[in-house]
Model the fold of this input.
Amino acid sequence: MCNVGMILGDEFKKYSFPDSPLANERLEAFQQMLEKEGIFKKGRVKIVGPVLTSDEILLLFHTKEHVDFVKKASEQGFGYLDYGDAPVCFGLRGYGETPAFKGIFEAASYLVGSTILGLDMLMRKEFDHTFNPIGGTHHARRTRSEGLCVFNDAAIAIIYAKKTYGLKRILYVDIDAHHGNGVFYDLNNDPAVYIADIHEDGRFLYPGTGFSTETGSGEAVGTKMNLPLAPKSGDKEFKEAFTKVEKFAYKIKPELIIFQCGADGLKNDPHAHLQYTEEAHRYATKKLHKISHELCDGRILALGGGGYNPDNVARAWLEVIKGLID
Ligand SMILES: [Zn+2]
Ligand SMILES: [Zn+2]
Done:
C-alpha cells in the first residue's frame, strides 16, 4: 500500500483555452470521481497546492526567446503562441495551434511548477508516488508552443532530474493517443533519456510523427521506442504494445519513471480514433508501479496529459490513482 501526493488547486483552472478541448470540465469530472469513489477518505491521497515555477527552470529546456515571447503574449492576451505555424495535419489547418490569452504565462508557470514540485516530493521521499493531473504538455518544443502545450513540463522535469539529482537513466512512458513529439525530438540525442511512447499511428493523427523506425539519434540510438497503433486499436493491442515497454524498462533499469497517462486513447474521445477502455490505464499503471518498486525505489511521477471526453478522463485517471495506491 502506497501514498500519492497529488498537486491540485484552483490555480489549475487558469490553464484553460477558450473554445478549445482543453477546458476545465475534465478536471472537475476527475475530482468528482475521486470524491465519489471515496479516494480521499482512505487517506492515501494527499492534495498539495500548485506552485509557480521560475525562469531558471523554464530555461533548462526552453530558449529565452520562447519564454519571453510567451510572457509578452500573456500580457497582450491575443495572438498565437506557436506563431500560427503549427504543422498542418491531414488538411486540418490549425489543429496544433495554441492561442494566447491574458495570464497564460502564469497558468503555464503553475503547470510546470507543479510537475517540478511532484518530482521534488518524490525524490525527497515525501510521498511514494506523485501526480500532476494537468501536467504532461508533451507537444511543446524548445523554441515554441504547440498543440495547446505552452511549455513542456515533462522535458523540463527530465533535465531538472538530471541536473538536480544527478540521474543518469530516466524512463519517460507516454500512453497519450498523440505522439509526445516535443519530448521525443528535443531529447532525441540524449542517451540518459529513455522513451517508450504508445500512440495512434502518425499517418492518421496529429502531430503526424512517432514511427517505429525512430529510435534516437547520435549516441542515443536505441534509447527511444515508438509503438504506433492503428486507428480503432483497443485494450488487446495496447497490452501487446505495453509488454514491450515492460521489457524495455527491465533492460534499462531506470532511476526514475515519468508516466504521461493521457486519456485520449479511450473510445469516444473527440480528438483521436483509438478504442481503449480504462483497463489500459489500470494495466499500465499496475505494471509500472511494480517495476518502479523493483527498480527505482517506487519513483513514479505521473502526468495527466490529454483527454477530451471528461467521463473518460475521470475513469482513466481514477485507475492511475488506484493503481498507485494499491
Ligand atoms: Zn507504490
Ligand atoms: Zn493527446
In short: The longest strand covers residues 193-200. The radius of gyration is 18 Å. Strands lie at 4-7, 45-48, 129-132, 170-174, 193-200, 224-229, 256-260, 300-303. The CA atoms of residues 1 and 326 lie 5 Å apart.
